[in-house]
Design brief:
2 domains; Aspartate Aminotransferase, domain 1; Aspartate Aminotransferase, domain 2; seven-stranded mixed β-sheet; about 15% strand; single chain; alpha/beta; three-stranded antiparallel β-sheet
Length: about 400
């Protein structure tokens, strides 16, 4: 039972922006619809000016991320999910595959490799929520599929030191909640994917696919045993479809979303590019970490401090009353805590992902102000105590 002597008082200060969803994520500070006035609505995406805007998304993204000059970057359908699927269906099957599975999306990639592509020479290196698989067990003569940041577990791969530089296989990295917030080791990766709706706060539906020269070589030298739908095809007549990497999209994009993506990229440049975005995200994590260190109600879901994500910051409730509940009770209590925060208008969409352990998930990407996270945290203390009072 809650000790009323230590119960948190109801805070009086609310976040200026209560949007802490892990996707679509908060718009950049100061955003308004006026920023989209330049959108080329009602125009063909194949016309000169719209195509130039699509290519501008590519060129600005490359520059901010510090992508090597010999990599290719294209806009593809169906958000990050489409980009990851396009990569897997296009290049896997040439070698054995190792899939790192440690949260819901990386588990989905493992399911696709095993049950959809039906690759018999595939291994799933798994870990429970809160941990990474044994990275030393990866065989780099195999192709490797991984999530650089576990969006639903708050566990990130801390660096690329463990990846062999002289590797036989390709490394495919789903980086949707890492790109623009973490320093990706391009020399240790071969295919990198992300979407617009994460760190830069863009709108959904479009994905980004980055290919190293080794990935391009695979595309040109290997033909999968299965048919590829049109939206997955990166080659034609034995040659790379170069137009994809210059703004010629496979299907019709939203020019309104394109304008929004450009607005986010320009804002990123004004914040100091990748270094500035990383500082903002790391400041958000530091704010949460300071609070957690002094708190008996919550802890990070990530067990190793080196793997704690600075974007999808996942928390478990450690209050004794919560720990003593059964699994169903914890699920219900976690949802109640999130519902109270939403009702108070201080934090929207921060319940743990449906497949994750009960708890909370705070987006800490660059578009979120640290002052808003600082205002949110006392409300979490208060909401947890409110649910404790209802439970006992």
């Amino acid at each position: 039972m809650l000790d009323s002597a230590i119960a948190a008082a109801q805070p009086t200060v609310k976040p200026h922006n209560p949007h802490f969803s892990s996707g679509p994520c908060a718009k950049r500070p100061g955003f308004s619809l006026d920023a989209l006035q330049g959108a080329l609505l009602g125009r063909s995406h194949r016309a000169k000016e719209p195509k130039a805007k699509l290519n501008e998304v590519i060129t600005r993204s490359r520059a901010i991320l510090g992508m090597p000059a010999d990599w290719r970057l294209g806009i593809v359908p169906a958000s990050d999910t489409g980009a990851v699927e396009m990569a897997m269906w296009s290049v896997l099957g040439a070698r054995p595959v190792d899939v790192l599975a440690f949260e819901s999306f990386s588990e989905a990639w493992a399911t696709d490799v095993i049950k959809q592509l039906k690759l018999s020479d595939a291994r799933v290196l798994a870990a429970p929520y809160g941990d990474l698989p044994d990275l030393s067990a990866v065989d780099f003569d195999h192709d490797v599929v991984l999530a650089w940041n576990g969006t639903t577990s708050g566990v990130r791969i801390p660096n690329g030191d463990w990846i062999e530089a002289d590797r036989g296989g390709l490394v495919i990295a789903d980086a949707t909640s890492a790109a623009f917030a973490m320093d990706l080791p391009w020399d240790k990766l071969d295919i990198v994917t992300w979407s617009w709706q994460k760190v830069l706060g863009g709108e959904a539906a479009h994905g980004m696919l980055a290919l190293s020269p080794r990935a391009v070589e695979r595309l040109l030298s290997y033909k999968p045993a299965w048919p590829l739908p049109k939206i997955f095809r990166l080659t034609s007549g034995g040659k790379l479809s170069e137009g994809i990497f210059a703004g010629e999209t496979i299907n019709t994009p939203s020019m309104l979303a394109v304008e929004d993506a450009l607005d986010g990229l320009r804002w990123a440049e004004s914040e100091g590019g990748l270094a500035g975005l990383m500082r903002r995200s790391q400041a958000n994590l530091a704010e949460v970490a300071s609070w957690v260190a002094q708190n008996q109600r919550v802890a990070f879901l990530a067990n190793d401090p080196a793997t704690i994500s600075c974007t999808s910051i996942c928390l478990r409730v450690t209050a004794q009353w919560f720990v003593e509940l059964d699994a169903a009770g914890q699920q219900a209590a976690g949802k109640k805590i999130a519902a109270i925060l939403e009702k108070q208008g201080v934090g929207y969409d921060i319940a743990a992902y449906r497949d994750a352990p009960p708890g909370l998930r705070i987006w800490g990407g660059a578009t979120v102000e640290t002052s808003d996270i600082a205002a949110l945290l006392p409300w979490i203390d208060w909401a947890i105590d409110q649910v404790a009072g209802e439970t006992f």
